[in-house]
Structures are given as C-alpha cells and as structure tokens.
C-alpha cells in the first residue's frame, strides 16, 4: 500500500487572492488519500513561504522522508505548491519522483502511471514555454518603452516619474549633495547612513538608511 506524506504551502498573498488556505489544502489532501486508500503519514506545512526556492523547512522534511524510505509518495493540492520553476521541477523529478510517486489533487496527476508521468512532463514543457514567452514579451515591451524615451524601472533616489518621464526631486537632490560632501570629507558609509537617520531623512521607500544604500547613491553620482 502506498505510504504518502502530504505537503502544503501557502503565501499570505495567495491565501487572500486564490483561497489556497492551509485548511483547504489539508482537507483536499486527506480526502484524496481516503478515496484512493493511501496511508497518509503526515501533512507538512510551509506557511508564508514563496516557491522561489526549494530551500524550505517543510519541503526539506518531506524530501527526507522520501530519502529514508519512510514515505514513497507525496500528495499536494496543486503542482505549484511545490515549485513554479522548471529547473527545480527537473531536479525534483530526477532525484525524488523517479522512484517515488507524486500525486497532485487539482491537476489529477499520479506519476505511478505512465499517463500521469506523461501529463507531468507535458505540463512542465508548457510551463517552460510560458516562462520563455513571457520573458520575450516583457523584453520587447521594455525595448519599445526605451525607444520612446520612457524610463524603465523604479526611479532612483533624486527622481520621480511624471507622465512616464523622469523628473528631478529637489529635496532628494539636496540629500545626494550632502551625502557626496560627507563622502568627500572622508566619512564612512555607515557614518553617513547614521547621520541621515539621525536627521530623520528617509530613503526612497520611507525606511532607514544602510551603508549599502549610501554606496549606491554615491556610485550612481560618480557614474
């Protein structure tokens, strides 16, 4: 009989936007295990964690259970609960889901069958195509904006966007001049950051200054 561990991942934004709540995923996983007579050993949760990296405490525990043979399958609510990255999927399939089963409730994938393995490979190929197509469209759009003289990206300290054009911010330019003056006077980056914070001067995002942010301002001015 198949012995499985359930895996649940949510990020705060996904809970709000898509209803991928912890309880909802656990409920679906338990119902799936009951339906197909699978022994569900545990359900491990990564809460408030993105899919950008496989380095997650919960997922590490799940993979360890596969490594030691405690479980021979993983049940997830949806494929993107594990990862959205094609290279990560290739790693997982090669190292874990060749000998062990991956069962996805929403995607109706069961890699214990040839059809399930085929579906997973097709979905991964489509995901890679979508990622590359989005990248191409984004690159084309950015080049078009640049060719029309539009600024691309967030404005640097000292500037703001007005009607898609960069406009100087006088108060921030004064801060930049002050930073450069202190730098020329031999003050360290940390000392400059401390002085800005003591004066109540905020960064572009309204936070406190750090040495690295001071360095960026100075290097940008030099460039």
Gyration radius, to the nearest Å? 25 Å
Low-confidence stretches: none
Q: Strands of the largest sheet, in order across it?
A: 2-1-3-4-5
Main sheet makeup: 5 strands, mixed
The SSE order reads EHHEHEHEEHEEHHH
The percent range for helix content is 40-55%
Q: In total, how many domains does the architecture comprise? A: 2
Q: What is the name of the CATH topology of the largest domain?
A: Rossmann fold
Tally of helical runs: 8
Structural notes for this entry:
The chain is elongated. 51% of the residues lie in helices and 16% in strands. The chain contains eight helices and seven strands, in the order βααβαβαββαββααα. It is an alpha/beta fold. It has a five-stranded mixed beta sheet with strand order 2-1-3-4-5, with helices on both faces. Helix 6 crosses helix 8. The mean pLDDT is 85. It has two domains: 3-129, 3-Layer(aba) Sandwich (Rossmann fold), CATH 3.40.50.1390; 159-222. Strand 4 (101-104) and strand 5 (109-110) form a beta hairpin. The protein has helices spanning 12-18, 22-35, 57-67, 86-95, 114-147, 170-184, 189-198, 211-222, and strands spanning 3-10, 39-47, 73-76, 101-104, 109-110, 159-162, 165-168.
């Amino acid at each position: 009989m198949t012995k499985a561990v359930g895996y649940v991942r949510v990020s705060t934004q996904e809970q709000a936007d898509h209803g991928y709540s912890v309880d909802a995923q656990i409920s679906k996983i338990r119902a799936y295990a009951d339906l197909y007579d699978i022994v569900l050993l545990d359900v491990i949760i990564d809460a408030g964690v993105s899919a950008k990296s496989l380095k997650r405490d919960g997922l590490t525990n799940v993979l360890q259970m596969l490594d030691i043979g405690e479980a021979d399958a993983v049940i997830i609510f949806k494929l993107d609960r594990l990862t959205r990255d094609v290279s990560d999927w290739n790693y997982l399939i090669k190292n874990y889901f060749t000998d062990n089963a991956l069962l996805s409730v929403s995607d109706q994938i069961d890699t214990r069958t040839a059809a399930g393995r085929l579906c997973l490979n097709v979905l991964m190929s489509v995901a890679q195509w979508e990622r590359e197509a989005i990248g191409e469209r984004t690159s084309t759009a950015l080049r078009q904006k640049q060719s029309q003289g539009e600024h691309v990206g967030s404005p640097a300290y000292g500037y703001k966007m007005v009607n898609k054009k960069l406009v100087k911010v006088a108060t921030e330019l004064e801060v930049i001049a002050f930073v450069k003056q202190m730098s020329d006077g031999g003050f360290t980056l940390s000392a400059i950051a401390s002085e800005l914070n003591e004066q109540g001067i905020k960064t572009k995002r309204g936070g406190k200054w750090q040495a690295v942010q001071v360095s960026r301002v100075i290097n940008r001015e030099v460039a």
